[in-house]
Amino acid sequence: MTGSSAGRASGKATKQLALDYFAGQLVGIKNDIKAGRADPMRPLADFITAFHALPEDRVAKLPGFVSLFSTLCDILDYKIQAFKAMVFEVGKDKLARFYEDPGGLDAVTGLVRWREAVEFTTVSQPFLTDVLACLGRERRPIPACEVIDDAGSIQASFDLPVDARNFFQEKAAITDCLEDFSRLAGRAIAPLADVLDHLETELGLDRIKAFIHVLHMIQDGDLVLESHDDDGEAGKLAAGTMVRLWRDGR
Amino acid sequence: MNEFKVISLLLARRGDVIGATDEELVAALGLEGKGGAEQLYRLLQAYSSSIGIFGFKVERNALDGHWFLACTEDVAGQARINPFQGRTRLASTLVAVLIATTCDDEGATVEQVRRIRKIKDVAPDLKELEALGLVKVKGNRVSLTDRVGYYIDLAQFMRQFTDHVNDAYG
What we know:
Chain A is mainly alpha-helical. Chain A has 14 helices and six strands. In chain A, the strands form two sheets. In chain A, strands 1-3-2 form a three-stranded antiparallel beta sheet. The longest helix of chain A is centred in the last third of the chain and has 16 residues, at 164-179. The relative contact order of chain A is 0.08. Chain B is α+β, with helices and mostly antiparallel strands. Chain B has two domains: 3-79, Winged helix-like DNA-binding domain superfamily/Winged helix DNA-binding domain (Arc Repressor Mutant, subunit A), CATH 1.10.10; 88-169, Winged helix-like DNA-binding domain superfamily/Winged helix DNA-binding domain (Arc Repressor Mutant, subunit A, Orthogonal Bundle). In chain B, the strands form two sheets. In chain B, strands 1-3-2 form a three-stranded antiparallel beta sheet. The interface between A and B is large, with 60 and 77 residues.
């Protein structure tokens, strides 16, 4: 922040700046910046400070995933300039040494966490397996999910959470049904697709709901995921995703 | 079709247009009017926590204001998600453009990028990055496009870069 902008910042209480933010007064500031009446670097820093000074109960009401920083950048249209102003504080001497370092760029490139937009229709079966493996054991509510397996690609869409009472009634029926499923007898394992087929055939349960129940059962420890290297037909069908009933202690 | 399906449909768009803006989501969900944005954020938050179990999360490209779906870090790590898989030279050149853009108030030039990359010619890499829609080259000037925001969290990158340079060359 420049000396003059710091002076202007102190003219308005931090708390009031925060309230301004919630009142949407940044629009006015944006217009001031566009008209050259305000220093474009000033409000960004001021509002970040104001945000951190907010009473906890106000902060708690903010949607957690909405980044104030992104929002401000969007509102003020700073984009890369804003990013630079906020986070870039490297001295020229250090930069010069970075430029001279033969391994400098490789080290920085190695730090980058790349990301990529997900398109559901390109999610593969092995990828889904990875997702299943990441589910963990802690029980959490999840939404209904429609999964259509079509020639190696998965299409998924999500629905609002199912009614809890019906869900648990269904779960009891599913548990009984799977315990009677001969392909899961003893410690036998079966492809996920076969389990879904069985539930569809025996209970008339659509595969969307069946999949959700299977996820819950994995989370609850009623079903166990197994990797499977068999080259046989079952292995091909499942592409490595196999489940078995949890039998230990029963 | 309920709200979550609408959100899934819009956020999973990928092509010329990736994901959706606040305005598009508000319109698609019929939330126009006062308080619409707040309601949208509440819905997005509920949606985001719901799909977390599947290894997905809602991200925002701060450069073009589009919300989109990405994988959580756990899943991305396991699935080894890297848009430059097998093309590390392109990743290095893009990072060099980011650094040149960040470090020079005048913006990046082809010569600066070449100097940071420490190779004789960066033109082929820049051409490929341009074809991917990630940079624009005009004469000697190189600029980043909004699409870069889908591949990298710029704020996180700049913080990492700042910390790294301060630690390694302090």
